[in-house]
Amino acid sequence: MSRGRTGRRRPGGCLTALAVGVVGLVIVIVLWYLLAGCLREPGPGPGPEPGPGEPTSQPASCPDVQMISVPGTWESNSDDDPHNPVANPASLMLNVSNPVQEQFPAGRVDVYTVPYIAQFSNPVAFPPDGQASYNVSRTEGMRRTFDFLTQRHQECPLTTYVLAGFSQGAVIVGDIAEQIGKGNGPVPADRVLGVTLIADGRRSGETGEGQPIQVGTPPPGVGAEVALAGLTVPGITMTGARKEGFGELADRVYTICAPGDLICDAPRNALTPANILGSVGTLAQAVGNPVHSLYHNFVVDPDGTTATQWAADWAVGLVGSAPTPPHS
Questions:
Q1: Would you call 104 helix, strand, or coil by DSSP?
Q2: Going by fewer Cβ within 10 Å, which terminus of the chain is more open, N or C?
Q3: Which InterPro entries does this one have (predicted)?
Q4: Predicted TM-score (pTM) of this structure
């Protein structure tokens, strides 16, 4: 009889152990999500200024033009000097921002390279790679860019802006440009001279109203965030295309994407939420692939102009022709 009673207790013990295991797994998953972080976008900006209250001059310390440069993944860090970035001397965006800084005096243009963590942890890596998640990195980049633009506009209401970003930085700049184009960004749309996005992960590949101007021959694919729209795993939220486009800014937003760069030229059906592990692994590897890192060699026109040369010439041209506001 005692053997029979002992035998009847075994299923209960197994079920208890299984329940404990399930609860432990749930706790691990919840902690995984919490530690990886959520994507948090800034709230609406001040929107357009009322015409009658517009100032007629601004402080002498204000630049005529403010250039915002947002580097890509692994090209910045949170503590970098925004006016003398040294986190990654090989940062692609330095090929764009340095020529602008060298061409003009500080009073004409201030070049601000947004310092942010700029990482992309692979959530399926084992052991963990020790990096910040895409959500954490992108949120910090968005917040710092948004806050700097807001503060600059409050201090310098007549300053105009040139915005440019690469890879993760292009997503950040593009998202802020979208808000500005809708009238609820950190600066008014009429203060923005132009925007260039290099390897934008939210590139839709579409043309028409609200869409950016393609530089060079556009590849057939879409941004990784469009191909993986709706995918949410710990630390990675794929937000899809910018459905409303760039609004008032669309006629001065440019996009550059090299064929075969999975960050902006992902085959529409190659990365799918149904294949989470494979898709996320491919995406993490795409950040460091040779095509993605060689835009300084990617030719965008018949004259042999590379993507970064084009962007630098574009920015220099905008700064050179920008208005010179009165200073007091």
A1: coil
A2: N
A3: AB_hydrolase_fold, Cutinase/axe
A4: 0.83
| Interacting residues of 324 by C-beta distance below 8 A, sequence separation 6+ | 64
Active-site annotation holder among 76, 167, 204, 279: 167
Q: Which listed residue (76, 204, 265, 292) is catalytic?
A: 292
* Mean pLDDT for back-to-back runs of 10 residues, the chain (328 residues): 50 60 44 50 59 81 98 96 96 98 96 95 64 91 97 97 98 97 96 98 93 94 87 81 94 96 82 60 65 93 97 98 95
Distance CA 172, CA 138 (A): 7
Instruction: List the domains of the chain with CATH numbers.
Output: 62-321 (3.40.50.1820)
Cα–Cα distances (Å) from 64 to 189, 192, 277, in that order, read: 16, 12, 48
Beta strands in 64-220 (DSSP E): 65-70, 109-113, 160-166, 192-198, 213-214
If residue 237 lies in a helix (H) or strand (E), which one and from where to where? strand 236-237
Q: Which two tokens stand for residue 229?
A: 């729209």
Nearest to 44 by CA among 160, 178, 138, 134: 178
Rg of the chain, C-alpha, whole Å = 23
Q: Tokens representing 177?
A: 């440009």
**Cα gap 282→263, rounded to integer Å:** 10
- Of the residues 64, 80, 261, 265, only one is catalytic, namely 261
Amino acid 270 reads: A
CB atoms within 10 A of CB 241: 17
Q: Determine contact, residues 189/221, Cβ cutoff 8 Å.
A: no
Catalytic annotation present for 78: no
CB 256 within 8 A of CB 196: yes
Q: Where are the alpha helices (DSSP H) in the chain?
A: 2-36, 94-103, 134-155, 168-181, 224-227, 276-286, 290-293, 307-321
Any idea which residue has 């996320």 for tokens?
280
Contacts of 15 (CB under 8 A, 6+ apart): none
Could you confirm whether 167 is annotated as catalytic? yes
